[in-house]
Write a structure and sequence with these properties.
By secondary structure, this protein is an alpha/beta fold. It has two domains: 190 residues, Spore Coat Polysaccharide Biosynthesis Protein SpsA, Chain A (Alpha-Beta Complex); 51 residues, no CATH class. The protein contains eight helices and eight strands. Strands 3-2-1-4-7-6-8-5 form an eight-stranded mixed beta sheet, sandwiched between helices. β2, α2 and β3 form a beta-alpha-beta unit. The longest helix has 29 residues.
């Protein structure tokens, strides 16, 4: 397997980061781990130092801007033919890279593994979640666990104000060059969403960010999907309160 660089955005990611990086190194032939850190003040940098001591290929870059500026810096440091975006709060499935290779073709510019929220337990909920999440990717893309053809984005200039929907900009950029972005159910990642999501304020904040940063046409297409996410978040919040009572 040819090595691929992995671009990871972090900021105070200590809670899940070790599990995330363990899954990356177990399932991806990592060339270099390019970490773009937003100014972590917890134990994030200590975790990164331990992995660098073991693998000797961790490169940490500081960026206190938006997700757009962080992803831009990550792309600019990629040196391999293909690279990955991996979120710092996900755990990759077994054989992620090997499974992704099945979807690589001459007209494929990106392969996206679906995300599954770690709190989902019921089969019916999972089935609906997977359907909705894949539809969202088809509209706006995603970067939780995504393999990209480097040459297609080396010339990209992501608008710096895109703290949300920078993934949509990347997907559109690849599509405009005549390449496909392929979503798949396997490989996948388990996404450990922060506890702030399971609050009314957190749910509304996600939707507000999407509305503020997205085009009206894109938001119109995504409103039902985000509505499903909000309903699920509130269900999870009520379940947590019930368990605590």
């Amino acid at each position: 397997m040819y090595p691929v660089d992995v671009v990871l955005l972090t900021k105070n990611s200590e809670e899940v980061l070790e599990r995330c990086l363990t899954s990356v190194y177990q399932n991806i032939p990592v060339g270099q781990l390019i970490v773009v850190d937003g100014g972590s003040v917890d134990g994030t940098l200590g975790v990164l130092r331990r992995f660098d001591e073991k693998f000797h290929n961790v490169k940490v870059i500081t960026d206190r801007g938006t997700r757009a500026t962080a992803r831009q810096k990550g792309i600019e440091n990629v040196e391999t033919e293909w690279f990955m975006f991996v979120d710092s709060d996900v755990v990759l499935c077994r054989d992620w890279y090997r499974k992704a290779q099945r979807y690589v073709d001459k007209d494929v510019g990106a392969v996206w593994g679906i995300e599954v929220w770690s709190t989902i337990r019921k089969r019916a909920t999972l089935k609906m979640f997977l359907w909705v999440t894949r539809k969202i990717f088809e509209l706006r893309g995603g970067t939780h666990d995504t393999l990209l053809r480097t040459k297609l984005v080396k010339d990209i200039k992501i608008p710096a104000d895109l703290h949300v929907f920078e993934d949509a900009y990347i997907k559109d950029w690849i599509n405009k060059k005549g390449y496909r972005c392929v979503p798949c159910y396997d490989p996948y990642c388990i996404h450990f969403r922060p506890e702030t999501v399971w609050t009314l304020k957190g749910s509304l904040s996600i939707i507000a960010d999407a509305v503020r940063c997205g085009s009206s046409s894109l938001i119109g297409k995504l409103i039902l999907a985000y509505g499903f996410y909000a309903v699920y978040s509130m269900y999870q919040l009520l379940s947590n309160r019930k368990n605590e009572a």
